[in-house]
Amino acid sequence: MRVEGRLAPEVNVPEEVGIADIPNQMLKKVLQRGLTFNLLVVAEKGTGAKTLISSIYNLPHFPPLKEQVNDLYEYTTDIQSNEILLTLNVLIYRGRSEKDLHTLVIDRNLQYNKSNVGIKRERVEDRRIHASLFLISPLSFRSDDIAMLKALSGLANTITVITKRDMFTGTELDSYKARINQELTAGLIHLYKSPRLSLALPLATIASTSWVRVKDQTVRGREYRWGVLSAEDPESSDLALLTSLLVTDSFVDLKKSTSHYYRKWKESTSADPIRPKLGQQEKDLLQEVERTITQRLHERLQQLQQTEKLIDQAMHSLNAPLG
């Protein structure tokens, strides 16, 4: 390159710059800030909730208790994998009240709504429920299970899981699943559907924090007098499928679907307890402002969609469970 007859020094740009690199810049900012995932687990005592979560996220030890309010126990841990820092918030609900479940999800929606209303908005932690695991006892599926699922499935991504799969024969499990699905259909209960994975809910899992040898490999599993059962074998457990669902393949979709449920909740709320009553003049002004920023929001949305794709690729590229 020549400038006024002289050779100009070459400029080496180590990274892309400009508009084309905005998604990469946004991805870097997201990764620096870290990702947050809020997982609600509805589980009676004895269903193996902690063992299941430890197996999914490859946790050597279950995180210490952060807070307890009645039947709700909250745990938090940071998980680092490659360049990704994930803050995992696990809420285990041990009660049997559909009203409590409904209140739990709504309260977190209200907290998020309060921080996003008004001119001066706060940057706060997103405490909305991104996914809910409803653990079904291998011993029985009761009417209060239906009531709780009905309350929960309309507010959050809900995934049903039968624990302790090793208590069933293949025929017994098929019969139990058929009965559960029949009752869910009769109750008009809609569960989460992954855009990437083929899910035949309820899933049935074997979970373990122990490692055993199976065919010259060390895997999570359980050892019995008659032999060893691998928790990671898809023929005997859906643990690997559930891990893919929560950690890699559907991680981004679960968070996007949370926004969908949140919008549905806001639309169904007859009176917003946070937003003050507005007169006609204020309403007209608000509509004008919303129309003015729509175009900018559309451009911003396109950038965010690009970032979501990059995050999705980053999560999907993990070769091993987080740990």
Automatic annotation (TrEMBL):
Protein family (similarity comment): Belongs to the TRAFAC class TrmE-Era-EngA-EngB-Septin-like GTPase superfamily. Septin GTPase family.
Domain named Septin-type G is located at 33-266
Protein name as annotated: Septin-type G domain-containing protein
Q: Provide the GO MF annotations for this entry.
A: GTP binding
Q: Does this entry carry the keyword NADP?
A: no
Going by the UniProt record, its keywords in alphabetical order are: GTP-binding, Nucleotide-binding
Q: Which organism is it from?
A: Nematocida displodere
Gene3D superfamilies, alphabetized: P-loop containing nucleotide triphosphate hydrolases (3.40.50.300)
Q: Which InterPro entries match?
A: G_SEPTIN_dom, P-loop_NTPase
